[in-house]
Amino acid sequence: MRTLSKKCALLAALVAAWFLVPAGRVCLAQSNDDIKTLVKEIQEMKAAQDAMQKDITAIKERLIPQPPPPFQGADISIKGDPSMGNKDARVTLVEFTDYQCPFCGRAYRETYPPVVAEYVKTGKVRYIVHDYPLEQLHPNAFKAAEAAHCAGDQGKYWEMHDRLFGDQKALDEKGLVASAQALGLDAKQFQQCLDTGKFKAGVQSEVDAGRKLGVTGTPTFFLGPTGNDPDKFRATEKIGGAFPYTAFKKAIDDIISPPKVKSVAKPAEAPAQKTAEQAKPGS
């Protein structure tokens, strides 16, 4: 009985082995195919991930503002523009400005006073204003620029300039008229100047000139040696934004007294070695 049981167990084991071995081979083959498929899918996913990463990098490069190219210089017309300071000053400074721009207001409060005190009033800098009203952002800026020129018709351009920046919330027509009254201007003449748009074309021409120069925001400043032509100058420096006074001081001082370029000293040459013949006594 025990012998029969052993034989039955052995037979069962052989039958099981007969079924399992082929199945194992099939499973192994199936596993190899799956692995190949999985590897292919991983490679495809990796390629898709790399492509997505390139797209993300490209989007970031477009979204992150790139530094502007170095300023190469430009000729700027200043014919007939409001000018403060000595016309023969060593340096000419032109500001493209917007009376409603908060950054222009900050530049007026923080940078303009020391520049005027240290350089304009001392005869070193001629300060000129170019209008660059950004109408889409500041709907009252264009008319405010016209108002400054209308005041200039009565000899009060800079006084109106100061009032407009002094209260940037009062730039609607009512505020402009109030400023004219405060400055003692002829009200009828001032109003007629505004109503007829006497300086509208002139303001627009300065906006067009600014665009050609690459002005994209306000305030933007151009500086350079004054030169001999009273109607234009060659700007050699550009400052875009309401930078602190120190930035203007350095730019102006560098134009007045250009920094000297340090020459690189050549290394001393080692003394030539004597040949054996030259090294003999008496050589």
- From the 3D structure, determine the CATH topology of the largest domain: Glutaredoxin
* Number of discrete helical segments: 9
Q: Which homologous superfamily in CATH is the superfamily of the largest domain?
A: Glutaredoxin
CATH C-level category of the largest domain: Alpha Beta
Query: Structural class, please?
Result: alpha+beta
List unreliable stretches of 5+ residues: 17-21, 23-27
Going by CATH, the architecture of the largest domain would be: 3-Layer(aba) Sandwich
The figure for the number of domains is 2
> What is the H/E order?
HEEEHHEHHHHHEEEH
Task: Tell me how many strands there are.
Answer: 7
What is the radius of gyration? 40 Å
Looking at the chains present, what oligomeric state does this protein adopt? single chain
Write down the overall geometry: elongated
Strand order of the largest sheet: 2-4-3-5-7
Structure description:
By secondary structure, the chain is an alpha+beta fold. It folds into two domains: 17-66; 74-256, Glutaredoxin (3-Layer(aba) Sandwich). It is built from nine helices and seven strands; from the N terminus they run αβββααβαααααβββα. The chain has helices at 2-63, 102-110, 112-120, 141-152, 157-166, 173-182, 187-196, 200-212, 245-256; strands at residues 74-77, 83-84, 91-97, 125-131, 220-225, 232-235, 237-240. The strands form two sheets. The chain has a five-stranded mixed sheet with strand order 2-4-3-5-7. Strands 1-6 form a two-stranded antiparallel sheet. α4 runs antiparallel to α5 (157-166). The chain starts with a helix and ends in a 27-residue tail after the last helix.
